[in-house]
Design goal:
624 residues; alpha+beta; Jelly Rolls; 12-stranded mixed sheet; 10-stranded mixed sheet; 26 strands; disordered N terminus
Length: 624
C-alpha cells in the first residue's frame, strides 16, 4: 500500500499557500432559526465531496517519508458557487475501518504482579504461554462516514465537515502510537492544510488547496474521537478556534491506571455488569485501531506494538515518561482554543476524572470554556437533553467559527442534569458554594459496621480479607450495610436531615496495613444508602499501596506495618436525599476493574487516622 501513497506524495510539489483570514464577523448570508442557531440554508444534495491526502510532520512508520493522512470532506456546493468561504467542523478518528481483533491481557493471577516484581517482558512471555487472554469486545466510539450525521446537519447550515483517519489507521499512513506525538501531529495536519501550512493531494496525486475555507476550525468527537481534539488543542495550532470533547480522555494514565494500580476502563456505558474491557491496555487498543499492520508479527508497525507492550508496564503501574507523553493536563497552558466539555456523570469507560482534571486546569489557566454534564454513561446526552445539547453545540460553533454574537459565551458556564432527568444551568462547576467536609471513620468493634461523622466516635482497628476474583464489588460487597462482612468494611453517617449535594472530587485518607503480603489492591466506594439499606454506588477510586508515596515510584509494603494512604475517587455531582445515609465501603480487589489475585490477602484499617473528604455545597455546614 505504501508505494501508492509514496507516488502520490512524489507528484505533489510544495506550494506556498497563503493562510486564509479568520472570520471577524458573521457573513451577511447566514440564516438563523427560532432557536437562535444557524438554520439549514443550502441544499445537501448539492454538497461537494472530496478526498485529500494531507502530508503530516511525522514519519511514524520509519520508512523515510512523511505520513500522509486521509481526510474526506463535504461542503456546501452552493456556497462555492456564490463565492462564500466557510469554516470547518472537523472530526478525526482511529475507528474508520480495517480494525483488528486483539485479545485482552489476562487479569487473574495467583498473586499480584507487583508483588512478584516480574519484569514486563517476563510477564508478557507468561501471558502468551498461559493462553488465557480474552477477546476484546465491542469497540468504543462512533463509526462516522460521509455522508453521516455531522455533514447531514452542518453542511446545510453553511459549514464544511472534515472527517479524518488517524495516523496508522484505515487508509492513513504510519503507525498508531496511542495518544502520543505521532497521533497528535497527524491530527493537526488537517488544520495546517486548511490554513495553507501543509500540502495535500487528491487520489490522482494532484495538488489540492482549501481555498474554499476560512481556515477557522472547530473539532468535535466522542471518546477517542473527542480525545484527539484535546491532544491537538495543547499544540496551540493556529486556526483551531474551539473544541467540543465528548467523553474524552485528558490523560491516558488515568484511563488505564489509577494511583499505581492497573485498572481497566469499563465496556458498559455506566460501569455496571460484566466488563468486556478487563485486560485492555495501550497495546491492545493499538492493535485494534492499527489492524494487521500492528497485529501481524511481520507487520510494518509491529515495532510499535512491542514498544507499547513493553513500556506501558502492567507490573508496577508507575507513572513514567511513557505516560507523560500521553498526558495533556500539563499542557493546558498552551491552549488557544475555547473548550466545550461534555461528559456523563456515570461514565466508567472514560471515567469522570478525565473531564474534571481537564476542567480544573482549564479554569486555572483562564481558558474560555463551557461544560455540559448529563447523568448517563459513556457518550453524549440522550433523551430529552439531546436536542437542547445539539442546539448549544450549534450555537457554540456559530459563535467561534462564524463570529455570531449570540451571547453564548456570557451564558451560565455549567449545564447539569439532575437525578430526576431535568437540566439546570449554573454559574460554574463544581457548584458555587462548594467546600470540603471531612467525615471521620469510627468503629466500635473489630467486625461491626462503623460510622462516618464530623467527630470520630471510636476507633477500634478492623481487619478484613480480600476475596480476590470471587466477589463482585457492586452486587455483593456494598450490599447489606447492617451486617458484618469479613470481605469488606462499611461506614455510614446517620440519616441525613436534608438533601446534601456533593460536587467535585472526593478523597479518602485511610490508615491501613497489608498483613500477610507485600502488595494488595485498595478500593474505596462512595455509596448512597437509602431507607431499608438499599445501596447505590455513587463513585469509586483505587490505589496501589506500593504507590502510597509517589505515582512514579513503588515502595515496598512491609507486612503488618501501618501506612497512611490518601487517594482520590472519581469526581461526581450527586444529591444524597434527606433520610439517606452517606456510606464508605473499603474493599481490596474491585472485581470489574482491577487485576484479580486469588483470595486470602489480609488487611486492617485503623480508624484513628482515617477519613473521607467530600466536596459538599455548603461545605461542612451542609451536614449540621
Amino acid at each position: 500500500m505504501r508505494h501508492r501513497f509514496a507516488a502520490l506524495a512524489a507528484v505533489a510539489a510544495f506550494l506556498g499557500f497563503a493562510a486564509p483570514a479568520a472570520a471577524q464577523s458573521p457573513p451577511s448570508w447566514l440564516q438563523y432559526g427560532s432557536d437562535g442557531a444557524t438554520a439549514p440554508q443550502f441544499d445537501f444534495a448539492k454538497a461537494i465531496e472530496q478526498t485529500v491526502w494531507v502530508e503530516s510532520e511525522v514519519d511514524s512508520d520509519r520508512d523515510g517519508a512523511k505520513d500522509l493522512i486521509r481526510v474526506r470532506i463535504s461542503r456546501p456546493g452552493e456556497a462555492q458557487e456564490r463565492g462564500h468561504k466557510v469554516p470547518v467542523v472537523y472530526e478525526h478518528s482511529p475507528y474508520r475501518g480495517d480494525t483488528g481483533n486483539p485479545a485482552n491481557h489476562d487479569v487473574d493471577f495467583d498473586s499480584l504482579p507487583q508483588e512478584r516484581r516480574a519484569t514486563a517482558s517476563a510477564l508478557r512471555r507468561a501471558e502468551r504461554a498461559r493462553g488465557k487472554r480474552t477477546a476484546r469486545k465491542a469497540k468504543r466510539g462512533p463509526q462516522a462516514n460521509l455522508p453521516g450525521t455531522l455533514d447531514d446537519y452542518y453542511v446545510p447550515r453553511g459549514y464544511a465537515v472534515v472527517l479524518g483517519e488517524s495516523v496508522g489507521t484505515f487508509n492513513s499512513q504510519g503507525c498508531p502510537d496511542v495518544g502520543a506525538d505521532a497521533e497528535t501531529l497527524g491530527t493537526k495536519a488537517a488544520i495546517d492544510w486548511l490554513n495553507g501550512r501543509a500540502r495535500g493531494v487528491d487520489d490522482a496525486g494532484n495538488p489540492v488547496s482549501a481555498d474554499w475555507s476560512t481556515g477557522d476550525v472547530g473539532m468535535v468527537g466522542t471518546s477517542y474521537n473527542g480525545t484527539l481534539p484535546n491532544q491537538v488543542a495543547t499544540t496551540g495550532v493556529e486556526g483551531l478556534k474551539t473544541i467540543i470533547p465528548v467523553s474524552a480522555i485528558s490523560s491516558w494514565y488515568d484511563y488505564y491506571r489509577a494511583n499505581g494500580l492497573v485498572v481497566a476502563p469499563h465496556s458498559n456505558t455506566n460501569g455496571a455488569g460484566d466488563n468486556g474491557y478487563l485486560g485492555e491496555d495501550t497495546d491492545v487498543l493499538g492493535d485494534y485501531i492499527g489492524g494487521p499492520r500492528m497485529e501481524d508479527p511481520n507487520g510494518e508497525c509491529r515495532f510499535m506494538h512491542d514498544y507499547l507492550l513493553d513500556e506501558q508496564d502492567r507490573v508496577t503501574g508507575d507513572y513514567s515518561a511513557f505516560w507523560a507523553a500521553r498526558d495533556y493536563l500539563g499542557k493546558v497552558d498552551r491552549i488557544k482554543a475555547s473548550v466545550f466539555v461534555v461528559h456523563g456523570l456515570n461514565d466508567f469507560n472514560v471515567k469522570t476524572k478525565a473531564f474534571a482534571e481537564w476542567w480544573y486546569r482549564l479554569a486555572a489557566n483562564g481558558v474560555e470554556r463551557k461544560i455540559w454534564l448529563h447523568n448517563g454513561g459513556h457518550g453524549g446526552p440522550g433523551g430529552a437533553g439531546a436536542t437542547a445539547y445539539r442546539t448549544q453545540q450549534n450555537r457554540w460553533f456559530d459563535h467561534y467559527l462564524f463570529g455570531v454574537a449570540n451571547g453564548i459565551q456570557g451564558e451560565p458556564r455549567s449545564t447539569i442534569q439532575r437525578e430526576d432527568g431535568s437540566y439546570r444551568n449554573e454559574a460554574d462547576w463544581p457548584a458555587p458554594g462548594t467546600g470540603r467536609a471531612a467525615l471521620e471513620v469510627g468503629s466500635g468493634s473489630r467486625t461491626a459496621p462503623g460510622t462516618l461523622s464530623a467527630k470520630r466516635k471510636s476507633a477500634v482497628p478492623q481487619p478484613f480479607t480480600d476475596r480476590g476474583r470471587e466477589l463482585d464489588t457492586d452486587d455483593v460487597l456494598i450490599q447489606s450495610p447492617d451486617t458484618a462482612n469479613p470481605n469488606r468494611l462499611v461506614y455510614r453517617t446517620s440519616a441525613l436531615s436534608r438533601d446534601v449535594r456533593m460536587s467535585g472530587t472526593p478523597w479518602v485518607t485511610l490508615r491501613m496495613s497489608v498483613d500477610n503480603r507485600t502488595a494488595a489492591n485498595l478500593t474505596a466506594v462512595l455509596v448512597d444508602y437509602g431507607p431499608g439499606g438499599t445501596a447505590s454506588m455513587v463513585t469509586r477510586g483505587w490505589l496501589d499501596p506500593q504507590n502510597r508515596n509517589s505515582l512514579t515510584r513503588s515502595d515496598r509494603v512491609e507486612p503488618g506495618e501501618r501506612y497512611t494512604m490518601r487517594w482520590d475517587l472519581q469526581p461526581d455531582d450527586h444529591v444524597f436525599a434527606a433520610g439517606h445515609r452517606i456510606g464508605l465501603v473499603v474493599v481490596s480487589t474491585d472485581h470489574d476493574y482491577t487485576i484479580r489475585p486469588k483470595p486470602g490477602t489480609q488487611l486492617t484499617l485503623a480508624p484513628s487516622e482515617s477519613e473521607i473528604s467530600l466536596p459538599l455545597v455548603g461545605g461542612a455546614g451542609a451536614l449540621r
